[in-house]
């Protein structure tokens, strides 16, 4: 199981939101490039980046910072946040990202998703935010009537290989990961599930490993010192 430490970007800084609420934002580092380098030194192989301004507004305002960051590290990097057209996908891939995560656009626009998957194959992942088991969109502000498990099955049919699933009732709360949810999602055969939201300690990582998910994103628990990456990597082996 892979470990993905998270960098959430807002106005060029590393921040965390609580439960997707832009009014509950904490700045953890003014220098995302230094933060990414720290992750690499700690031995991780992967990095998860979200452009929170992009998630809200649908453009790529932090592309300069991201380009600089990726030129200085050698990590498998996935990036998401408001990616709603092929140009923005290309922009991030050209900046050095290994995989681009489509969120709201993948829920709302099947044609865009299918085009992106046919053009870029495994360089496309889909990120879904779940609130009470249902898909939420537009920077977590809008709950749909789409069931999360059904949505992941649909992704499998379209040919999406990786789905990043964030339980936003848990995200940024440090209240523990929603293990039952990830057990259900992991039963879908041809989709790799990356778990995100609420991971609070090493026990959570061990529990998630048992569910069969292919990766875990670690955010707030790292920044507040509840999880050390070396221990996380060990638990994920």
Write the layout of secondary structure elements.
Elements: E1 2-10, E2 13-18, E3 21-29, H1 32-41, E4 46-51, H2 52-57, H3 63-72, E5 76-80, H4 86-94, E6 99-102, H5 104-108, H6 110-120, E7 124-131, E8 134-137, E9 142-147, H7 148-158, E10 162-167, H8 179-186, E11 192-196, H9 202-211, E12 215-218, H10 220-223, H11 229-236
Parallel strand pairs: 1-4, 1-12, 4-5, 5-6, 6-7, 7-10, 10-11, 11-12
Antiparallel strand pairs: 1-2, 2-3, 7-8, 8-9
Helix pairs in contact: 1-3, 8-9, 9-11
Could you describe the 3D structure shown?
It is built from eleven helices and twelve strands. The chain is α/β, with parallel strands linked by helices and 237 residues long. The chain has a single domain, classed as TIM Barrel (Alpha-Beta Barrel). Strands 1-4-5-6-7-10-11-12 form an eight-stranded parallel barrel, surrounded by seven helices. Strand 8 (134-137) and strand 9 (142-147) form a beta hairpin. Helix 1 (32-41) runs parallel beside helix 3 and helix 9 (202-211) packs parallel to helix 11. It starts with a strand and ends with a helix. The mean pLDDT is 93.
Low-confidence stretches: none
Q: How many strand units? A: 12
What CATH architecture do you see? Alpha-Beta Barrel
**Major sheet attributes:** 8 strands, parallel, barrel
